[in-house]
Amino acid sequence: MGRATALLFADEGASVLAVDRNQEGLDALIAALPEAASVVPCVVDLATSAAPAEVHAAAHRAFGPIDIVVNAAGVSSPVELHDESFDESWRLTFAVNVDAQVQLIRMCLDDLCRNADGRVVNIASTEGLGATAPMAPYTASKHAVVGLTKSLAVELGPRGVTVNCICPGPIHSGMTADIKDEHKAIYARRRTALRRYGEPDEVAHMILSLVLPAASFTTGAVLTVDGGLSIRSN
To answer: For the whole model, what pTM was predicted?
Structure first.
C-alpha cells in the first residue's frame, strides 16, 4: 500500500520521500517509476526511536518543508497472550504502528502548520474498529491510531492541519501475501459485500483524495476501504 501510494503521488506531480526499512522494497519502487518522477528513497527502520528525526531530515535535504505526511508503515503478527514472545511483539508493534506515527507528525509539525494547510493521513485497519484473536498488539495499536487521529484533528484544526485515518480491510499486500489465494477467496465471499480482496491502488486513491483541496473541510474522519466488510452482518 505504501508503494502504491508513493507511485500515485509521484504520478500526480508530488515530490515524495519514500521510506522503507529494506533497500529491496525501495529498489522495486524506483524501478516502477517514470523517469520524471521526483521520489527520493530513504532506508530507515521506524521501530527505532531516532527514525522520525532521520525521516524529517532526509525530506528537508531533498525537498525542503513538508506539506503532507502519510503514515503507512505497519507490522503485524498473530500472538497469544500467554506466548513468551508477547511482550516483544507488543513493543515492536506499538513502536512502528503508533509511536513512529505520532513522533513523525511531531517532527513535521512546524512544516505542516506554516501555511495552515498541512495534511496528515494515518493508516489504521478495520482491526481498529473491531477485534480478531489472537492479535492483541496489532488490534490495540490500530485502535490507538484511530484515537490518535481524532485527538490530533481536534488539536491541530485551529492551525489549519487536517488529520484523517483510513482503515483498510482485506487487501492484497505484504501482510497478506502468505495467505493462499483460495483462502482469500473464501474469506472475501463470506465477509465482504464486494466478495473480493482490495488492491493497494484502491487504498492509495483514497489517501490521495484526503489531501486534495476538495477535502479541505474533512478532518478526524475514519474511512473504511474494506469492500463492505465492516457493514456486512451476514
So the answer is: 0.95
